[in-house]
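Run log // design_07
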């Protein structure tokens, strides 16, 4: 670039070039006009773009300033017409309210094995008594005897729990007369009845038995009163079985501690979980612990098969002793067979040379 500029400078300063006459050419105005028109159009286009950009910015600001509506429009619900002759599903049956039930404590009654009233007769007696007392809205559909001798009754499909509970005194009086007819022994008062609700059972460990040389272990009522006095959470429970010792109290030695089992109404299991979160209670000056109730497994592993016996293992290196039950004499070995006129060469370990 520097060399070209230098040559151009020399060419222009040359005396011959400067002496040459230069012709005059008039300037053309057409390119200038076109250039000015194009520049005006570009300027107008640039102005238009600037205005559009400014307008879009203003619109965005207005949109952001508007309040946000978070509620979605509700969808129109299409009314469903129930299908005729449809079979109810399991979910529909499970959603129906269960039959209310009640438990009657009839363990004080004793009958011969063949004279205890059957459930059908009990239901008929109760329903007849309810109809005579204008309790037509209550109907008993089933009854069952428990292993402890108590009676469980279930209301009909149209019987509510409230109506059944209000009719329990009339049911108890009706059964008092009916159950006393064929019973060997019967109480003088009507049997107590309570609603049949789900219950939970817990174990109270490390409880003092109170057994001494001069007195027996604490009674269930004494344990219950001791727990009521020191534990507000326990006082809110509806006890179905008072605290009872897991072993016969007569087998306890003086001064020992043992475990109690207690049952209480707990329809959804929340009361048992609340007690287990506490983990401890106070009773007769001692801190006792709470655990889930677990029934003990059977001690006799051969209860179902008493003839089976556990195999006896002999120590390592000891000779097993045969028992008389499975001893069998070994069979007599057969007599050796004699071969007459045959001679056998003695066995030798030395190899012999092959015969050529």
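design_07 sequence
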């Amino acid at each position: 670039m520097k060399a070209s500029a230098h040559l151009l400078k020399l060419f222009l300063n040359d005396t011959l070039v400067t002496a040459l006459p230069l012709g005059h050419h008039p300037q053309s105005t057409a390119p200038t006009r076109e250039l000015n028109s194009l520049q005006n159009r570009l300027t107008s286009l640039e102005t238009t773009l600037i205005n559009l950009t400014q307008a879009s910015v203003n619109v965005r600001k207005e949109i952001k300033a508007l309040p946000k509506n978070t509620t979605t429009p509700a969808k129109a619900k299409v009314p469903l017409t129930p299908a005729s002759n449809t079979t109810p599903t399991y979910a529909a049956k499970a959603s129906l309210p269960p039959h209310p039930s009640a438990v009657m404590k009839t363990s004080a009654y004793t009958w011969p094995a063949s004279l205890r009233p059957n459930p059908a007769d009990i239901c008929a007696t109760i329903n007849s008594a309810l109809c005579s007392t204008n309790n037509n809205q209550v109907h008993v559909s089933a009854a069952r005897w428990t292993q402890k001798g108590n009676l469980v009754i279930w209301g009909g499909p149209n019987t509510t729990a409230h109506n059944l509970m209000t009719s329990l005194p009339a049911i108890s009086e009706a059964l008092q007369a009916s159950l006393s007819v064929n019973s060997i022994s019967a109480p003088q008062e009507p049997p107590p009845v309570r609603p049949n609700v789900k219950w939970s059972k817990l174990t109270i460990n490390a409880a003092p038995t109170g057994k001494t040389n001069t007195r027996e272990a604490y009674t269930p009522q004494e344990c219950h009163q001791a727990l009521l006095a020191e534990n507000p959470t326990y006082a809110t429970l509806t006890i179905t079985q008072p605290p009872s010792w897991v072993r016969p109290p007569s087998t306890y030695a003086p001064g020992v501690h043992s475990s109690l089992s207690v049952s209480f109404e707990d329809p959804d299991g929340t009361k048992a979980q609340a007690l287990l979160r506490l983990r401890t209670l106070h009773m007769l000056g001692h801190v006792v612990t709470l655990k889930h109730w677990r029934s003990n497994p059977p001690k006799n592993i051969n209860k179902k098969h008493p003839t089976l016996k556990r195999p006896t293992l002999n120590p390592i290196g000891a000779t097993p002793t045969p028992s008389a039950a499975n001893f069998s004499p070994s069979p007599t070995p057969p007599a050796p067979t004699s071969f007459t006129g045959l001679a056998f060469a003695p066995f030798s370990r030395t190899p012999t040379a092959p015969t050529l």
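The chain is about 30% helix and 15% strand.
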